[in-house]
Amino acid sequence: MRGQDGFTLIEIVCVLAIISLLAALALPMFPRDTPRARLEGYALQIAAMLKGDRTAAMREGKPVSTAIDADALAIRSGRTGERLQLPADVGFKALIAKTCAGRRAGASIDFFPTGMSCGGAIDLWRMETGYEVRVNWLTGGVEIVPIVKQ
After folding, report:
1. Count of CB atoms within 10 A of residue 42's CB?
2. Which of 74, 93, 116, 117 is packed most tightly, with the most Cβ within 10 A?
3. Which of these, 65, 118, 115, lies nearest to 95 by C-alpha position?
4. CB contact set of 119 (below 8 Å; sequence gap of 6+)
5. In the chain, what are the domains?
C-alpha cells in the first residue's frame, strides 16, 4: 500500500486548537472603542431627551429639568426618568448655567413652560471626532453640531 497524501484528523484538530488559543489571547488586546456612528447615536439620544423634556415643560405648564452628571458620564430625563449612561472611552463635558431663574443650578438644564431654558452645551468626543449638543437659552431649541478636537 502506498502512503496517502494529506492531513490526518489529529493534525487538523491540533492546528485549530493552536489558532483558537492564539485568538483567545489576542482578542482582549484589541480595543473595544466607541465607533463614530455610536458616538453620533449618543448625541442624538441626548438631543431627543432634551427635546422631550422641553416639550413636557410646555405641555404640562411646569419646569422640567434634565440632570447631568459629568463625573458619572450620565444624563437623566426629568420627564421620564430615563438614564443614559455613556461608556468610559467617551469624553464628556457639560457647560451649564450656575444660576437659572433666580436659583442655583449647575447640575441640570432646566426647561420652562414658555419654551425657554437655562441653556447649555454638552460635548461628546472620542479621539478627534465629537459632537456638541447645544440648548439655546432663549428659545430652548436643541441642535447637534459636529466638532473637531485638536
Report:
1. 22
2. 117
3. 118
4. 97, 109, 135, 136, 137, 138
5. 36-148 (3.55.40.10)
